[in-house]
Design a protein that fits this description.
The complex is a heterodimer of chains A (about 325) and B (about 280).
Chain A lengths: L4 E10 L2 E11 L4 E5 L6 H9 L6 E6 L2 E2 L10 E4 L11 H11 L4 H14 L15 H14 L4 E5 L7 H18 L2 E6 L2 H7 L2 E6 L2 E6 L1 H6 L4 H6 L6 E4 H4 L5 E4 L4 E4 L5 E10 L3 E8 L3 E8 L9 E6 L5 E3 L5 E2 L1
Parallel strand pairs in A: 3-8, 3-9, 6-7, 7-8
Antiparallel strand pairs in A: 1-2, 1-4, 4-5, 9-10, 11-12, 12-18, 13-17, 14-15, 14-17, 15-16, 18-19
Chain B lengths: L1 H35 L3 H6 L13 H8 L3 H32 L5 H13 L6 H10 L6 H24 L4 H9 L4 H12 L1 H17 L2 H6 L8 H5 L10 H31 L5
Helix pairs in contact in B: 1-13, 3-13, 4-7, 4-10, 5-7, 7-10, 8-9, 10-13
Classes of the chains: A alpha+beta (about 325), B mainly alpha (about 280).
Chain lengths: ~325, ~280
């Protein structure tokens, strides 16, 4: 039932402001594709263009090889899950889930069967006769996901679905979405600003900035092989450290090193500085070191460690795992 | 402690001001209702006295109910008010939805144009309106009044409602579009229930001037069959003699329906006024 999506030179302008500046992308059948980027990068606009909620200024949106630029949202065989759940407040959970099929003129029996399948999948059976106001945030988002499943669409679209949930629920729902993707084998396009969601869910991550694609690839590909400083800084948490290559005698303008690849010592090392803050998370310890040449650097250590704020510290990057970038921020290979 | 006492003092002051305002606002109503139950002599002798048994007199009400067709006047007022209200809310909400939801050339300009009516009183156009109604053969019909009042109420309705409609979740409307609801269904089923408090606010602001209006009924529909209650009460006000009992009784009666309508809307209204403040 799932389909493949292709974007060909898709662009969007509001008046003279270009929001999406020519995007080419293909998402294969059954793939989980995540659009990630800072706010204002155009990821939500791009998703809404795929959904048909925004017009495409130029370029083509193809679903299963068919151009759907001018097809109404309801006829595109897509389903969308929104950040604010967007459940119909006047309808019960059952009617919320069944509305799209009812609008499409499906038989009562077929609708009931689809709702039963979806509510089983999401453990919503007990809530079918309730209204959205009587549900918690997590339950509402499950209903919204259920409403998408009921339609058996070619393409699932998720617009920051976890942003309104609290941290614990976010993790649980994230796992739930990953499970659903495996069970349904459906093609999914997912928008988020949270790189952890992107890393954990995606088969393919699309990093966007200023309406352009910066890099496309599998999560580990982006992590191990970023194309530029933007992607390198965006993927991975805590953020990659950027050091001035000249001061270290390294290639290029900037040298990137992940916090876990910086060794810290109280006595000797390449870069001297003072510890400005320590975050102990139990499983790992983050040490922030203020250096004169490179600014604030983050060191990630596993396990518990004791450091005194304001103490002198020396850092040594693991040269084998460093990334080198030119003045324009492009990766030197 | 000083903080807490300061708050109590401020609260007392605020309540004193509000109570004083309430008394001033209610005083004329109180005088009308009280005097409508008194004999003519008592009204003039002591206008502020309560209708004690020795002055108690229903002559005003009996006159009102005997003379003229007051039930018909009530019905006319009610028809005009309710019909105008219905059209103002329907068209106002529709225009507001279009202005807040769709991007089109001249959107802002159209919004300003529609809001212009708030600043320009419709009575300035009375002569033209009268000519128009004469030409259309609508003089002495309730339709004429309903049309004029709808036009009069629309600017404020569009202005207030479009502000509220901008706050309705885009996601909800988009979910409706993806589920295949028509724009009309999205408007009537998803958006309207969410702006109900604003609709009630607009209803009250629109309803009261229409119910109280004397100008347009006098000019456009003064015939016996189309008289509204405000115009009907004028028969008791003569150039030389005014039947105060009847006037006051008619006015007291005229308060009742509008009060009922207000109570219907008021629960929603309070939520509407405070919607922006607390949330």
């Amino acid at each position: 039932m799932s389909g493949s999506l292709e974007l060909r030179g898709v662009a969007k302008a509001f008046g003279k402001t270009e929001v999406i500046k020519g995007v080419d992308l293909s998402v294969d059948e059954g793939e989980f594709c995540v659009f990630v980027g800072p706010s204002g990068c155009g990821k939500s606009t791009l998703l809404r263009m795929i959904a048909g909620l925004e017009d495409v200024t130029t370029g083509d949106v193809m679903l299963d090889g068919v151009r759907i630029n001018d097809v109404a949202p309801a006829k595109r065989e897509i389903a969308m899950v929104f950040q604010t759940y967007a459940l119909y407040p006047h309808l019960t959970v059952r009617d919320n889930m069944g509305l799209a099929l009812k609008q499409a003129g499906e038989s009562r029996a077929r609708i009931d069967q689809s709702i039963a399948v979806a509510s089983n999948m999401l453990a919503l059976g007990d809530y079918l006769e309730r209204r959205p106001a009587e549900l918690s945030g997590g339950q509402r988002q499950r209903v919204a996901i259920g409403r998408a499943i009921v339609r058996t669409p070619k393409l699932f679209l998720f617009d920051e679905p976890l942003s309104n949930l609290d941290a614990a629920l976010r993790v649980a729902t994230r796992i739930e979405i990953a499970r659903l993707h495996r069970e349904l084998g459906a093609t999914m396009v997912y928008v988020t600003h949270d790189q952890i969601e992107a890393m954990t869910l995606a088969d393919k991550i699309v990093v966007l900035r200023g309406g352009r694609i910066e890099q496309v690839g599998a999560p580990m590909e982006l992590y191990n092989n970023p194309a530029n400083t933007f992607v390198a800084g965006f993927i991975g948490s805590p953020q990659m450290n950027f050091l001035r290559a000249g001061a270290l005698g390294a290639r290029g303008e900037t040298m990137g090193i992940r916090p876990e690849h910086l060794a810290i010592s109280a006595t000797a090392g390449e870069i001297g500085g003072r510890i400005s803050h320590v975050e102990k998370l139990g499983g790992e310890t983050l040490v922030y070191v203020r250096t004169e040449v490179h600014g604030l650097l983050t060191v990630r250590l596993f396990g518990e460690h004791d450091f005194t704020v304001d103490a002198v510290a020396f850092l040594t990057p693991d040269q084998a795992r460093a990334f080198h970038f030119d003045t324009a921020g492009q990766r030197l290979r | 402690m000083a903080q807490a006492r300061g708050n109590i003092g401020r609260s007392i002051a605020a309540h004193a001001v509000l109570i004083a305002y309430t008394l001033i606002a209610l005083f004329p109503v109180f005088v009308i209702v009280v005097n409508s139950f008194k004999s003519r002599r008592a009204i003039f002798a002591n206008p502020l006295a309560l209708p004690w048994p020795e002055h108690f007199d229903l002559v005003g009400y009996t006159t009102v109910l005997k003379q003229g067709d007051f039930f018909q006047y009530f019905l006319n007022s009610m028809t005009v008010t309710v019909a105008s209200l219905f059209f103002v809310l329907l068209f106002g909400a529709m225009a507001a939805f279009a202005l807040s939801e769709y991007r089109f050339r001249g959107n802002t300009l159209m919004g300003l144009y529609l809001a212009l009516g708030i600043m320009i009183p419709i009575r300035l156009g009375t002569v033209a309106i009268l000519q128009l109604m004469v030409a259309a053969g609508l003089v002495n019909t309730l339709t004429a009044l309903i049309l004029v009042y709808t036009a009069q109420g629309l600017p404020l309705a569009v202005f207030i409602l479009s502000e509220f409609m901008r706050n309705v979740s885009d996601d909800l409307k988009n979910a409706g579009r993806i589920d295949g609801l028509s724009e009309y269904r999205i408007f009537f089923v998803l958006v309207l229930p969410l702006v109900r408090p604003a609709m009630a606010t607009v209803a009250v602001f629109t309803m009261i001037p229409i119910w109280n209006d004397l100008w347009f009924p006098l000019i456009l529909a003064p015939s016996e069959e189309t008289k509204t209650i405000t115009l009907g009460s004028q028969v008791f006000i003569g150039q030389f003699v005014t039947n105060w009992n009847a006037v006051l009784a008619a006015l007291s009666l005229a308060i009742v329906p509008v009060l009922v309508l207000y109570l219907v809307f008021s629960r929603q209204l309070i939520r509407g006024i405070t919607a922006g403040a607390v949330k």
